[in-house]
Specification:
With about 260 residues, the protein is α+β, with helices and mostly antiparallel strands. It is about 55% helix and about 15% strand. The protein has 2 domains: about 150 residues, no CATH class; about 90 residues, no CATH class.
Length: about 260
């Protein structure tokens, strides 16, 4: 395993660039995801950030922002930085699906490099995932800079949060082939919320599910172990997909009640 790296300097640099680019239009910069929830693993986790601004961002500002983010992304953990810019008016009261001004994650890097101008012009719309991100911010989020969380983010209605997290897992059987650790633990934390109403991290969701006899605790334990270490996850795909089908059926049955 590599020596642990403190990525706090990346977060600090990101805040500084947000302040320089958006100036008085910046309401705040907020950390969510594993780094905020206490289960960050630099080998397996990304840095998740929401930037809130007061009004529309010009394409010129977006281009400047993207130049800085791509540079910072190269200094981030292997999974990089995932970041969305959202206008404050859509955060409180909460709007769903949530409009966003700009989004970046490493999966979009090649598209950005092909045409930065087209990227900032087109990477704008609505994103169901933001309901889940805002819920994490309301429960675990950290203010990197700006207004307090309660001043910026309204409560996310339960039905919107459920729709958001189900949207993320509905293709779990297929997705198991690509990122089995993420999918396994994400299914666990989704079921955990439906059972006890608590928004939890992937790690906490996995720990909760291990104690439930109806599921493959060995598989979940292996996924959790890999998530929290640099260990590779090696499991039979048929078993993974069978697990996903069983979890999805349980989740869908609970949603019907």
């Amino acid at each position: 395993m590599r020596e642990p790296v403190d990525y706090g300097d990346v977060a600090e640099a990101l805040v500084q660039k947000c302040r320089e680019i958006f100036e008085k239009e910046l309401s705040g910069v907020y950390l969510h995801g594993s780094m905020a929830m206490g289960c960050f693993n630099p080998e397996k986790s990304d840095i998740d950030v929401i930037v809130v601004i007061k009004s529309d961002a010009s394409d010129f500002r977006k281009l400047r922002f993207m130049e800085e983010i791509v540079e910072l992304n190269a200094k981030a953990p292997p999974k990089g930085i995932e970041i969305s810019i959202v206008k404050e008016q859509y955060c409180k009261p909460f709007v769903y699906p949530t409009p966003y001004e700009l989004h970046f994650s490493p999966g979009h890097l090649e598209r950005y490099r092909r045409s930065p101008e087209a990227y900032v012009r087109e990477m704008k719309g609505t994103d169901k995932d933001l309901a889940a991100h805002f819920t994490v911010i309301n429960n675990y989020g950290r203010v990197l800079w700006g207004k307090k969380i309660g001043e910026v983010f309204g409560q996310v209605p339960r039905e919107d949060y459920i729709d958001s997290i189900f949207y993320d897992i509905e293709n779990a059987v297929i997705d198991m082939a690509g990122d089995p650790v993420y999918v396994t633990l994400n299914l666990c934390r989704t079921l955990c919320f439906l059972c006890n109403g608590k928004c939890v991290s992937k790690a906490e969701g996995g720990r909760w599910a291990i104690g439930r006899s109806e599921f493959d605790s060995g598989l979940i334990n292996e996924a959790l172990d890999c998530y929290l270490s640099d260990k590779r996850f090696e499991y039979d795909l048929d078993k993974l997909q069978s697990f996903a089908r069983k979890m999805l059926k349980t989740i869908k049955d609970m949603l019907k009640t």
